[in-house]
Amino acid sequence: MTTQAHPEPAEVGITDQNLINNYFIGPRASNMPDFRANINTVLDELLKTRLDYYHEDNKPERQKAFQKVRDNFGDVVRKVPQLLGEHSVPFWSPRYEAHMCTDLTMPSLLGYFMTMLYNPNNVALEASPLTTVAELKVGEQLCEMFGYRTPHTPAGTRNEEPLSWDYITCHGTVANLESIWVARNLKFYPLVLHQAINERKLQFIKDKFEVETWDLLNLKPKTVLDLPNLLYEQYDISSDFLKDALDPYTIQSYGLIPEKTDEFYKSLKPMKFILSKTRHYSWPRDLVSIAGLGSANLLEVEIDDDVHIDIKELDDKLKKCKESQNPVCAVVAIIGSTEKGAVDRLSEILKVREKWQKEGLSFLVRADAAWGGCFATMLHRDLERGRPTLGDSDKASVPALTLRRETEDDLLELQNADSITVDPHKAGYVLYLAGSLVYKDGRMSKPGAGAMSTWLSNQTIGLDPDGYRKLLGQASFTSSRLSVRYAVQADFRAKTRDSFICVPFNRLPQERRGHAFNSPKAEDDREEIRRLILGKPNSELLQDAEAVKLLHKLGSDTNINGFALKFPISRDSFFLSARLSSLLKWLYYISECPLR
What we know:
By secondary structure, the protein is α/β, with parallel strands linked by helices. It has 22 helices and eleven strands.
């Protein structure tokens, strides 16, 4: 039998897609040889480190009893990875679309693995000399990504602003909790200072000014943060003396209702936090109640049809707070909601804050950007924004899609938020236990493996147009193409229709103009999508500017495509409910992506 000679495979060029693929082990573990080699390098260095430390020490002999322990240990190590493989979700596969689970970058995996072997504790510099520096570097990277001022900000740029600050938390919920503590304490600080002036060591400046409770509760955040420095400059009060004078009256010492109350506390009404209904479930349950303010004082604002906070209702709630003299600690913008990826109109929220500050109502504006924060890497800060472009489309088999203009505007406004929560372990493709809390003003102010994992991934891939922007841009393109399937499932002009209807949460362009989901205008949009996009390969799509423009209008703000399924109206509601339940169970079954 003769064998046919096969031609040598053509060399694959390093396109953007190939470059991004090399950041990950891959769905078929194509980069496992490199990952394994790097793991071996880490273990070799661990061995060398241990042998080099007092190398003259005797090496303990391995006793016979160790053989049994080693056998048991080996059995566990063989069995548990097998169980993990059989019973974990296939987060590394593009076929798996559920939850905020993605493949992880190899730099983040290697950074975490190499660091956990040394078990550094970043709470103390002497216990974590390298990983503390890594955390500081991550902080600077994230501050710069959001447009905050850092020690590396060019001279003459934002010089009037204070230096920002960031640190790694275990996850975004803890970052949000700590931000609430800061907002609460910042609100109480002028009251505590007033009480110390009235009753104790600061009485010598008592006759210099008079203020009302409401005025103290509505000082601008910068004014409150400037108070210690002003007291030093004008009255020569040192920070140590001030701390000693204030400690007996702080809520950290006596709780929300101090033992020694004056008229200021007697007139104090419940403080409010305001955010939209797309907020994470942990806000009322774990955050406001833990901070002692009570979940009843979290005011939820309705959302519009694009799942963004309703700015008019926000304005109305602030008006009521001013009229009733309820202090507002913070208004929180959701930058990438957990279920829909929706980005609140932060630019409009900041305008509302400016309006009410002029009316004597002051509060922090913070951004819960746990999911959406990393999309700031996609911004073109020095170029025209909002153009529906596909990056490097001549080379990339999967091009990068830019963000919508409105989303870019709101991500750019993160530089004017007082604080930001961002989870690199979400859209940053790094391991869990890597949340982060970023402060615009550093005066507001754990294990080391998470910091090292994030730093190594940021350093290797880059928080710039050539790094995470391309990675997330390609993800945005794929997400928009996937949303096309949901958008065209409903066909109200077809003679035969499916037994159910798919209703995407993200509206079609004509729906945003006020036309109904089943209107002729919306159906025109679907026809355009079918004609220009559906079924077209990427190479053909790239050549069609009209198709690219339409694709840019579809899908989520930040890559999460939600949808609902419904049946045509039935008189038998029980029968309809049973059918819908069966449909959802079937969808769950086919979407499980079993590993075996």
